[in-house]
């Protein structure tokens, strides 16, 4: 069992990010048994859940003349326009049915603000508005996190780099992650995480 100062962060293992979902990550469902096994080794387990209202500003359908996966500018910076996904209360927003959610100590929902997307488990995409995860970890004396989930090149990446910015020791276990792969988004994610001091566990 890991020490009490360590937590496992499980990022967005939801139906819409698994095969058949609205924003499916290739082989996304394959992380579930691996993550369930990892959970047995941690006292503290946090799940994050993408939780968008309908007509969220990050949806391509909310922008006339724009297509899915196009890049646009928001007041907070560049934003990929996604297919409608993880809409509050929908089956797509639910966790994968085989994920052992009963072991979670807390669930952090993100992306609820219709005007700002939220990749990171710690901050919305303005990099200022907190989700409350940092406070939760600090009050429990947690200074070390291992991160797994979906998708490596977006929500895992931003959660990991924000965790480092907040002073946490961070490892990303790549066997428990899968990526979207828009252009070189995976390579860029690996580079950025390494540069920020994130340990990437491979194999």
Protein model, in words:
The protein is α/β, with parallel strands linked by helices and 203 residues long. The chain has a single domain, classed as Isochorismatase-like (Rossmann fold, 3-Layer(aba) Sandwich). The protein is 20% helix and 23% strand. It is built from 4 helices and 8 strands; from the N terminus they run E-H-E-E-E-E-H-E-H-E-H-E. Strands 5-2-1-6-7-8 form a 6-stranded parallel sheet. A two-stranded antiparallel sheet has the order 3-4. The longest helix has 14 residues, at 152-165.
Write out the CATH superfamily name.
Isochorismatase-like
Rg calc = 16 Å
Query: Could you say what the CATH architecture is?
Result: 3-Layer(aba) Sandwich
Widest beta sheet: strand line-up: 5-2-1-6-7-8
Uncertain regions spanning at least 5 consecutive residues: none
Category from helices, strands and their pairing: alpha/beta
Average pLDDT across residues? 96
Quickly count the helices. Answer: 4
Report the top-level CATH class: Alpha Beta
Strands, helices and their partners?
Layout: E1 6-11, H1 31-39, E2 44-50, E3 71-74, E4 77-80, E5 106-110, H2 133-139, E6 144-150, H3 152-165, E7 169-178, H4 185-195, E8 199-201
Parallel strand pairs: 1-2, 1-6, 2-5, 6-7, 7-8
Antiparallel strand pairs: 3-4
Helix pairs in contact: 3-4
Quickly describe the structure.
The protein has 203 residues and is an alpha/beta fold. The protein has four helices and eight strands, in the order βαββββαβαβαβ.
